[in-house]
Here is the input.
Amino acid sequence: MELKDGMSTTSALSQKPVNFADKTFQIEIKQKCEYKVTQIKKIRHFGYILKQEFIPYFEKLHGEYVETIDKGFND
Here is the structure.
């Protein structure tokens, strides 16, 4: 859910799958997210926010993931 609300670039890059090259992952995430720069107390913060057109897909996948996890704990 963090990606939908906004995620720092450091946090996003730490979630990179092992089989993805760094550059490939950065290109993929930039295609699906907006790059935002905010400034709080003269300190810049860089992050990604999921684009509106990808939110329904994200919610569907997230829901399926939660159901799978819940099912695993209840077995």
Remarks:
- The chain has one domain: 2-74.
